[in-house]
Amino acid sequence: MESGRLSSTEQALIRESWQKVSSNLLQHGIVLFTRLFDLDPDLLPLFQYNCKQFSSPQECLSSPEFLDHIRKVMLVIDAAVTHLENLSSLEEYLTNLGKKHQAVGVKVDSFSAVGESLLFMLEKCLGTAFSPDVREAWTRLYGAVVKAMSRGWDARKEGE
């Protein structure tokens, strides 16, 4: 994750937009995951807590365990925003996070729907402030995060 991937303008756009989102991470995270389950309902079975299978996205989204997962996802995004100048400092963490996601059955392809859901959430939160430049900056940041996480899949293949 080269630190030069995002321009200073893109970094400023991301920081400014995230400031509005970060005022209520859980609420915005619920928007993100609601959209994710709309886009890819087949992801729902991946979320099981205490061997309990959720019968609907609404049941999952109201579970305390899943709300904790949402908080963690939003904190990972927050960490990426905090480290925009030095995204490579998150490389090992994100690769390991990728390994954990692969271990529970997440496919790399699913990150496309997650990215769409992230952009949807940002658009809902920011309204007219979600300009094409803001969208592009977030798309580039998310691409860098996914690239690092996908190395977790590659690392598992090498270790097998």
UniProtKB/TrEMBL annotation:
Catalytic activity: Fe(III)-heme b-[protein] + nitric oxide + H2O = Fe(II)-heme b-[protein] + nitrite + 2 H(+)
InterPro entries listed in its UniProt record: Globin, Globin-like_OT, Globin-like_sf, Globin/Proto
GO molecular function terms attached to this record: heme binding; metal ion binding; oxidoreductase activity; oxygen binding; oxygen carrier activity
Keyword Kinase among UniProt keywords: no
Main location: cytoplasm
Keyword Transport: yes
GO CC, alphabetical: cytosol; mitochondrial matrix
Globin domain boundaries: 5-154
Subcellular location: Cytoplasm, Cytosol; Mitochondrion matrix
Organism superkingdom: Eukaryota
Keyword field: Cytoplasm, Heme, Iron, Metal-binding, Mitochondrion, Oxidoreductase, Oxygen transport, Receptor, Transport
Record family assignment: Belongs to the globin family.
PANTHER family: BLR2807 PROTEIN, NEUROGLOBIN
Function comment: Monomeric globin with a bis-histidyl six-coordinate heme-iron atom through which it can bind dioxygen, carbon monoxide and nitric oxide. Could help transport oxygen and increase its availability to the metabolically active neuronal tissues, though its low quantity in tissues as well as its high affinity for dioxygen, which may limit its oxygen-releasing ability, argue against it. The ferrous/deoxygenated form exhibits a nitrite reductase activity and it could produce nitric oxide which in turn inhibits cellular respiration in response to hypoxia.
Designated name of the protein: Neuroglobin
